Amino acid sequence: MASIFSKQKKEKTTSLHLKIDLHNHILPGIDDGAQDIDESLEMLEAYQAQGFTKIIATPHVNSERFLNSTDDILEATEIFLEAKEKENIPIQIAVSAEYYADKHLFYLLEKNDVLSIANKYLLCEFSFYFPPIDAKLIANEIKNAGYIPILAHPERYEYWFNDIKAFEKLKEYGFLFQSNLPSASGLLGPIPKHNFYLLANKGWIDFLGTDAHNAFSIYLMQNIIELNIVQKTLPRILNYYL
Ligand SMILES: [Fe+2]
After folding, report:
1. From ligand 1's centre to the CA of 61, what distance in Å?
2. 113: Cβ contacts below 8 Å, ≥ 6 apart
3. How far is the CA of 24 from the centre of ligand 1 (A)?
4. CA–CA separation, 145 and 109 (whole Å)
């Protein structure tokens, strides 16, 4: 009799994992993430230690701070892949970008000069200081170019603290939401944590990402992934299809 109960207890401790990251700054020397190839490889080792199998690199593309062209990103990717090959780390790599939603993005969309995720999605971010003047227009520009917009870390825009209506509108416009795992733990402050819970409890988180800028932050993921709110969110996210 005792053996049946102990078996049940053991099975209950199994937790879900995240194996595909669609938001990080692992490429060397082109934004505020890995500054050189050694740092990129440190990050890759951290991903391996955490059980990740696929990484989609998303360096910033921002006309004011990081004016990375598609060629710049592909060049950094080549350097990264060459070094990865030598280290023999079996993690699949894909490349995209995190586009700041401004006129420069519209210009790139018009030229069809963007790096999408899985030929289907486009990851974009808004200002942390003021809400976009016309979020609907941003969604439409991305959709008209043939992509589904993914909004990076909606929980981090503090001007939308507890603002269900604002998030509802963004969903209506067609944005999918990619939330940052560190937000769930409070590492990014109380407002991102509050909004992460709000979005998770509404079932509005479509993707989870690390938004990692260094190896240290990747090593923190395991404990964050085990949080109840993340475990509750994992079965319904779309990372598995990337
Ligand atoms: Fe990012």
Report:
1. 10
2. 69, 70
3. 6
4. 6
In the structure, ligand 1 is a single-atom ion and the residues with CB under 5 Å from it are 98, 211
Ligand 1 mean position, distance from CA 98 (Å): 6
Distance in Å, CA 124 to ligand 1 centroid:
9
67 Cβ contact list (under 8 Å, min separation 6): 61, 104
Q: How far is the CA of 128 from the centre of ligand 1 (A)?
A: 12
| 242 residues of the chain, pLDDT tens digit each | 444 444 444 444 568 899 999 999 999 999 999 999 999 999 999 999 999 999 999 999 998 889 999 999 999 999 999 999 999 999 999 999 999 999 999 999 999 999 999 999 999 999 999 999 999 999 999 999 999 999 999 999 999 999 999 999 999 999 999 999 999 999 999 999 999 999 999 999 999 999 999 999 999 999 999 999 999 999 999 999 99
Domain 18-241, CATH: 3.20.20.140
Determine contact, residues 38/4, Cβ cutoff 8 Å: no
Distance 87 CA to ligand 1 centre (A): 25
Q: How far is the CA of 85 from the centre of ligand 1 (A)?
A: 25
Q: How far, in Å, is the centroid of ligand 1 from the Cα of 122?
A: 13
Sorted by where each begins, the domain ranges of the chain are: 18-241
Q: What are phi and psi of 13, to 5 degrees?
A: -80, -5
